[in-house]
Design brief:
194 residues, single chain, 5-stranded mixed β-barrel
Length: 194
């Protein structure tokens, strides 16, 4: 999901900042340009960590509105977020709605549809911002920790916050962390009774 990658990109240094071009300055410009942006090859750029190399500056005459700016190609390391299909992720419920729960899994939220949470019927409790089962009295609400698997992924490169990630928690070992702990303790108890 999170990776450290080496990338190359070009940044524009405005004329007023050309006194001495430093790696810190290029790093800041790369951060401003790339952080939060989505790239189909590497995922979402979370942060630029370190600049390794800065190429020779180039002035582009067709860029009249940026008169005096110089463009530098830089090689740098960045941390990216690129969720993989079938990957198991831990996250926190950030919103509960009638049709499911949105789970924060890094810089994006995944949807845990109500049909993918449990085999039990879950009703929406708007007042308490939770989904509740009448069979087992289990609830899923905001700030609950959840383990789920990514089953669908549609990444929007222009607006990463509009990316859609579908999750499921209906397999063994997946679900609300509290439920997983209860299930583990029940298995331990059953094993001790044998």
């Amino acid at each position: 999901m999170y990776k450290r990658v080496t990338l190359t990109d070009t940044v524009e240094v405005p004329a007023r900042e050309l006194g001495s071009v430093t790696t810190d300055q290029i790093k800041r410009l790369l951060q401003d340009k790339l952080e939060g942006r989505m790239d189909s090859d590497v995922g979402s750029v979370v942060t630029v960590i370190e600049v390794h190399d800065i190429g020779e500056g180039v002035v582009l005459p067709e860029r009249e509105r940026h008169e005096g700016s110089v463009f530098y190609e830089a090689e740098f390391d960045a941390v990216t977020f690129d969720p993989a299909m079938q990957e198991v992720v831990d996250g926190t419920v950030v919103e509960v709605v009638e049709f499911g729960a949105f789970v924060g899994i890094g810089p994006v939220d995944g949807l845990l549809h109500v049909s993918q949470i449990s085999d039990e019927y879950l009703s929406y409790d708007a007042e308490n911002q939770q989904l509740a089962s009448t069979e087992s009295n289990r609830t899923l609400g905001v700030d609950d920790a959840v383990r789920a698997r990514i089953v669908t992924k549609s990444i929007d490169e222009r607006n990463p916050r509009d990316s859609k990630i579908g999750l499921t928690a209906k397999q063994p070992g997946l679900g609300k962390h509290g439920w997983l702990t209860e299930e583990h303790e029940a298995r331990q108890q059953a094993a001790g009774d044998d």
